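Subject: for your reference before the review

Hello V.,

The reviewers asked for a structural picture of the protein, and I figured it would be easier to keep everything in one thread rather than splitting it across files. Below is the amino acid sequence we used in the manuscript, unchanged from the supplementary table.
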Amino acid sequence: MNLKRLFPYLILNILVSAGVTLLVLSWWDRNHNPVDVPILTPLAPISTPAPEETPTLPPTDKPLIQIKNVFGVGDLQNEVIVLARQGNGVLELTGWQIKDENNHSYTFPKLLLNQDGGVQVFTRAGADSVIELHWGLEEPVWNSGELVSLFDTAGNLRASYRIP
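And here is what came back from the structure prediction:
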């Protein structure tokens, strides 16, 4: 093959590639705003986050949540408490506690329960999600006839359920 015949095509290919690249970069620059990332220097003060506000508790005379059932009583792998939201709006359960009559207690992590929502609290260990929480115990907690109680952050009884 003769390189002299290919040379104009190579030059044309380089020019077209450069033009397309510049067009794409220009379009990208116009349509995507850059994100400003603050640069910390060793002398820059580090701000501490503001303390989280304690949520205002709803009145105790309104039913907010119900303990629907406790399933798998005595079986660690299947033992679970089923809770359901009653009423309107979002209920923050962060810091609320489930307690039994034998001084076992579970404290809720950061959790918002939406209207008509529900959550299951398993006795066993596992990975938490928005609908399943895990107590992380190595043996079952619940027995037939036992009272399950749910308390808010102020210690007010909000729901109870006697296991049949």
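For the response letter, the relevant points are probably these. Strands lie at 65-71, 80-85, 91-92, 97-99, 105-107, 112-113, 118-122, 132-134, 147-151, 157-162. The two ends are 91 Å apart (CA to CA).

Happy to draft the paragraph if you're swamped.

O.
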